[in-house]
Fold these 2 entries.
Entry 1:
Amino acid sequence: MADSVLIEGLVVETVVGVYDWERDVTQALVVDLEMSWDNRIPGASDDVTDALDYASVSECVEHCLKELKPKLLEHGAEVLAEKLQREFGIGWLRLTLRKPGAVPAARSVGVCIERTACKGVPGNA
Ligand SMILES: Nc1nc2c(c(=O)[nH]1)N=C([C@H](O)[C@@H](O)CO)CN2
């Protein structure tokens, strides 16, 4: 099963960064997500409750990053991936977190992680 649900270019304004000055301002983070989901079920039922609702996931991403105020992108990505997998029952995801403007000579910098939930662990898919 290779189906997925996508979110691309989700912009979240939050406190992020390791330097003192970065703790006093907000900066934009850009989130890309690919999340495994069996789309045959909502494909047949035409019912959003069978789908991985990308609007709900987007709200969760925004809320999580605004509350977390991570220093490192790595920490933001790790906490966010774990929360999404637990709350939405997502088996596998690829999450990219970009910080445009952090390195002026680069279009963007960021991190990308892939995580698979461990079956049998309470709360995991
Ligand atoms: N691998 C990382 N390197 C750096 C990060 C980060 O989150 N992950 N962060 C910074 C600073 O916050 C920088 O973005 C300020 O411009 C430096 N390196």
Entry 2:
Amino acid sequence: MASTAPVIMRIMASSIQTAKRAGGIIRDVLKQGDLGIVDKGKNDPQTEADRSAQRCIIASLTKKFPGVKIIGEEGGSDLNVCDDWLVEDLDEEFLQKSCPAEWRDAKPEDFVIWVDPLDGTAEYTQGYVEHVTVLIGIAVKDAAVGGIIHQPFYQQPDGELGRTIWGLKGLGTGGFTHSLAPPGEFIITTTRSHSNALHQQALNAFPATKILKVGGAGFKVLQLLEGKAHAYLFATPGCKKWDTCAPEAVLEAQGGFLTDINGKNYSYNADVEHVNRQGVLASVGENHSELVYKIPRKVREAVGV
Ligand SMILES: Nc1ncnc2c1ncn2[C@@H]1O[C@H](COP(=O)(O)O)[C@@H](O)[C@H]1OP(=O)(O)O
Ligand SMILES: [Mg+2]
Ligand SMILES: [Mg+2]
Ligand SMILES: [Mg+2]
């Protein structure tokens, strides 16, 4: 019944399979050894894995959904890829699920797919491969609605590498076991490679019992989902719509929040500015607005309201 499923269900089911294939490409580039690093800016590396994974994802999704706008971190991509990189199948298990009523009638032109082919590139080049994720975020009009977070280097109990987490607002999440972070503690997960004085000032305002410095927006949201941290803070511009669309959708499908540091959700339509100028604050199982008001007003004014 694949062809009759609502567009959003088909985009999600195709993105699950495509993110897995991209994860395989990311492992292959590392195995082969030459990362082909290019510096796009300060602390902003790109590797052959970013480029190849993006080509795989954009070519596959464009072929399947020609009427859908797709925006990838690595810019315009050559859609001419080998058959091995062209993912045609859909995740059948996902397709069996029932589509939430609110998205059932969404048309191809209502969607924007935000692709971060490799989130945590700095960490990938430094050997912290468990921080790496593939992010495919699905926006309907302005809102982040669905997301895939694939971890290429996650070791399954049976030894298999890779796991795929999904979330769709109104339906829920899959691919991991949700738990809340320990009560009585306050653990913050934050950047390890893009800190600055402004961000540090915000971090200092929290009575944290522990600060985890890890790479990638996807990995930090996974830490929230698995109860390793209570909040994710990045109080400065730097991450972009492709970093937050999928994590926001998955976290919010689980009852959490991912907003700017003023507590406002970002917009994900095709015309928005790519940079998330007002930073990121995410939490699950917490009073999110209380966290917003812990961030010093000076910091919130510096990034803009
Ligand atoms: N200053 C920056 N320049 C470029 N990318 C950034 C910057 N800050 C954050 N990012 C992106 O957001 C992700 C999360 O940031 P951090 O790990 O510092 O918390 C990074 O892995 C990176 O995504 P990517 O690795 O896909 O380029
Ligand atoms: Mg990058
Ligand atoms: Mg990223
Ligand atoms: Mg990236």
